[in-house]
Amino acid sequence: MATVEEKQTVQTDQETILKVEDLKKYFPIKGGILKRTVGNVKAVDGVTFDVKQGETLGIVGESGSGKSTLGRMILRLLEPTEGKVLFEDHDITHLSHKKMRPFRKEMQIVFQDPFASLNSKMSVEQLIEEPMIIQTDMGKKERKKRINYLLEKVGLRASDRLKYPHEFSGGQRQRISIARALANNPKFVIADEAVSALDVSIQAQVLNLMSDLQEDLGLTYLFISHDLSVVKHISDRVGVMYLGRLAEIAPKHAIYKEPLHPYTQALLSAIPDTDVDLEKEKVKLEGDLPSPSNPPSGCAFRTRCPMAHDKCAEVRPELQHMGDGHYVACHLYDEEQ
Amino acid sequence: MLEVKDLKTYFYLDDDQVAKAVDDVDLTVKAGETVAIVGESGSGKSITSLSIMQLINKPGKIVDGEISLLGRNLLNLSNREMTKIRGNDMAMIFQEPMTALNPVYTIGNQITEVLRKHKKMNRKQAKRRAIDLLKLVGFPRAEDTVDEYPHQLSGGMRQRAMIAIAISCDPKLLIADEPTTALDVTIQAQILDLMSDMKEKLEMGLLLITHDLGVVAEYADRVLVMYGGQIVEQSPKRNLFKDPKHPYTEGLLESLPSVHNDLERLGTIRGMVPPAHKFPTGCRFSSRCPHAMDKCFESNPELIDLDHEHAVRCYLYTED
């Protein structure tokens, strides 16, 4: 069995498909009788990374880390407050609806809840056909042909075409969502907690399907999840988010074998593992995630960090390169120390 | 301490169909022991725990079996007697603390209600005890928290408050149904550690219902794997993870991505859990089992004892 490490080395020379530069999203908090803006929830606060053609970048974080907001901004489902999104070297951050259209064909998303994200009044056929009608000038025959092709690709039967979403289980519905996302042959797919609502045995089926599709169709994935094990399984590189910022981003093996950021270390040690003989050193985190409307000064993680020192309260750490594509935002790795 | 025998909880559906949500479940929990029930959605794990608490409503009914706690058969008790036991001798923690707590009462109110009812404390004693309990479960400002409402607390803190309510009358048995499923991993670790601490301190038996095999591996002493309303395998924790016997348990373990291995592909179990009124005749797992033989489709195997308290419901392990 080929290990994922081999796949990794091949991909380093590949082109960048998506670039995100210093992306920010602030949601204003309105207060008082005049509904003035009294503060901001800094959901995403300066995130920079790029995604290479054909790879899977995993984004992990707990609730409130800003990972979903990030995904939505990349697709322009939310307008960024600041920063840039570049898709295949085109700046799409401020494109009008009309000019954005050709890009929508290339960029798709699969959401967490297949019960809510599929229109219950449309049949499977209609659901998959709709994006083709909007985006392409394919004839009816061609569309039907493609629907059958897609259904087979995602492991559904051609006879399922005329059924409605409620006739399917959660795992099968997620297959329909995937078929719909792939309708116009996109290059880039965001999966936002796409397997989180599924039971493990079904989750495994959908994850395997996503890997197969990636290989067959040359897809690039941005895989957003709270589940570190799932992200490890599917990703080539992984970014860890905390309170709207990237704490660490690195090739998968580096992040899971030698996590540098104290938050990543704590997160990894908190996952209960099925290996009953595993002796692991536990890094326990105290307390909860601080409110993103009033984040701590300096490093956002310092209030829960076991290694925090004076500088952490004063200066916000930026991502620094530690070699081999491993970036970390932590003062422990500053030069002068 | 807790002994459940041949428990059958059926749901009578509108169209005269019967959903055998729990069918012939035996289990025991000793003092100071953590027993985990694992299974996917539809396996009957939650219905088992609700049956033990006797919180089954129509169209569901406990049709047969015996549930004894400290030697008393709970199924013979009247509603009133059962009310005395619930919250007192045994207590339950649910998955979603926001819906389990009453949003219009303060945390203090919800703890003192239990104490005044079961322990006949007066207002002042109850409040003092409530503050002590909140301190015990890790609230740093317990004196203030008693007067706060659930919405003022974070998810993890709400679950701590639920634990405080559950242990307020020193129950002998604590049932936790997916207590950390709604929480982030770092908070999950805090809550599970707190529950194990409380179990040791109060010498309770803990029945942990979960879908998460990682949680089971880390916190349980014994494990029951449920599928289709029945226990398909039971064993001390180590054996189950090192040497799973039932094809379903094997399948579950193989389908689980882990941060410690590098599999290119995950194992899968084909198909999905059938609905409870359409279980296959014969072994309930037969429709998905990679090793299914002719007789698996004809009759349902019994739970067979192997060595070391390990039991499995599968024809692969019968003599003939």
Strand and helix layout:
The complex is a heterodimer of chains A (337) and B (320).
Chain A (H helix, E strand, L loop, with lengths): L3 H8 L4 E16 L4 E17 L3 E5 L6 H8 L7 E6 L2 E2 L5 H10 E4 L13 H12 L4 H14 L16 H12 L6 E5 L7 H18 L2 E6 L2 H7 L2 E6 L2 E7 H6 L4 H9 L39 H5 L5 E2 L5 E2 L9
Parallel strand pairs in A: 3-8, 3-9, 6-7, 7-8
Antiparallel strand pairs in A: 1-2, 1-4, 4-5, 9-10, 10-12, 11-12
Chain B lengths: L1 E11 L5 E12 L4 E5 L6 H9 L6 E10 L2 E2 L5 H7 L4 E4 L3 H4 L6 H12 L4 H14 L5 H4 L9 H12 L6 E5 L7 H18 L2 E6 L2 H7 L2 E6 L2 E7 H6 L4 H8 L49 E2 L5 E2 L8
Parallel strand pairs in B: 3-8, 3-9, 6-7, 7-8
Antiparallel strand pairs in B: 1-2, 1-4, 4-5, 9-10, 10-12, 11-12
The biggest beta sheet of chain A is recorded as: 8 strands, mixed
Roughly how much helix do the residues of chain A carry, as a percent range? 25-40%
Distance between the termini of chain A: 43 Å
Q: Low-confidence runs of chain A (pLDDT<50, min 5 residues)? A: 1-12
Mean pLDDT of chain B equals: 90
User: What is the CATH fold-level name of chain A?
Assistant: Rossmann fold
What is the C-alpha radius of gyration of chain A, as a whole number of Å?
A: 21 Å
Strand composition percent of chain B = 15-25%
| CATH-level-2 architecture of the largest domain in chain B | 3-Layer(aba) Sandwich
By CATH's scheme, which homologous superfamily of the largest domain in chain B applies?
P-loop containing nucleotide triphosphate hydrolases
Shape verdict of chain A: globular
What is the H/E order of chain B? EEEHEEHEHHHHHEHEHEEHHEE
Rounded mean pLDDT of chain A is 89
Strand order of the largest sheet of chain B: 6-7-8-3-9-10-12-11
Oligomer: heterodimer
Keywords (chain B): ATP-binding, Cell membrane, Membrane, Nucleotide-binding, Transport
Family (chain B): Belongs to the ABC transporter superfamily.
Subcellular location (chain B): Cell membrane
Protein name (chain B): Peptide/nickel transport system ATP-binding protein
